[in-house]
UniProtKB/TrEMBL annotation:
This is Pseudouridine synthase. It comes from BD1-7 clade bacterium. Keywords: Isomerase, rRNA processing, tRNA processing. It catalyses: a uridine in RNA = a pseudouridine in RNA; uridine(746) in 23S rRNA = pseudouridine(746) in 23S rRNA; uridine(32) in tRNA = pseudouridine(32) in tRNA. It holds the Pfam family PseudoU_synth_2. InterPro entries: PsdUridine_synth_cat_dom_sf, PsdUridine_synth_RluA-like_CS, PsdUridine_synth_RluC/D, PsdUridine_synth_RsuA/RluA, RluA_PseudoU_synthase.
Length: 218
């Protein structure tokens, strides 16, 4: 069954641009790259290439996840940035709102992940066959009225759906998550409450460490 992505009317915010790189804030509901179906051609890269024709994708965010992404504006910049992601030299931090109270103020989820093939694109924890996956978390705020926790998430690895599955594994699914949250938790938000809020890397020209911060609007 082909999934057709609903139109996304939100704009892409340009956070930073120079001759080598582009840093943007992707809205929730917009693909990072085109989908297989021709009806899913609208995405971040095709929109950006209207004004930045040389823009090249370095990494991705899920359709439902909003937040910071960096793109290369030439082949060398793309290679430089891609290597940093491959070597885990890029700093990434997310904010999420999850169901219930996380009792620990901080901690980590170390749980290997594998594709739940009959239910793809869902992923699942598999201690025997999964690929290593590690997420650090830190509680920002506990909301007594809504019975929710706002948490900062720092993935050490970059597995598909890692943050969503690890929060579910911890017993606290992310609010608004259509893949992993129970219906009552999904219904608490019309979008996934997950946002890539911090990104740091070395600039391709200067090797200067650059840091960007973009707080979520939820």
């Amino acid at each position: 069954m082909t999934f057709i992505v609903p139109p996304c009317d939100a704009d892409i915010d340009i956070v930073y641009a120079d001759s080598r790189i582009l840093v943007v804030n992707k809205p929730s509901g917009l693909l990072s790259v085109p989908g297989r179906d021709v009806r899913n051609r609208d995405c971040l890269i095709t929109r950006l290439q209207v004004d930045f024709p040389e823009a090249r994708i370095v990494h991705r965010l899920d359709l439902s996840t909003s937040g910071l992404m960096v793109l290369g504006l030439d082949a060398e910049a793309h290679r430089h940035l891609s290597r940093q992601f491959e070597m885990r030299e890029v700093g990434k931090s997310y904010q999420a709102v999850v169901d219930g109270f996380i009792e620990e103020d901080s901690g980590a989820v170390d749980a290997p992940l594998i594709c739940d093939w009959p239910n793809r694109p869902r992923q699942m924890v598999d201690n025997d066959n999964g690929k290593p996956a590690l997420t650090h978390f830190e509680v920002i705020h506990r909301d007594d009225e809504r019975q929710q926790t706002r948490v900062r998430l720092k993935p050490h690895t970059g597995r598909s759906h890692q943050l969503r599955v690890h929060m579910l594994h911890l017993g606290h699914p992310i609010v608004g998550c259509k893949f992993y949250a129970p219906a009552a938790v999904r219904a608490q938000s019309d979008r996934l409450l997950l946002h890539a809020c911090e990104l740091s890397f070395a600039h391709p020209d200067r090797d200067e460490r650059m840091h960007f911060d973009c707080q979520p609007d939820f």
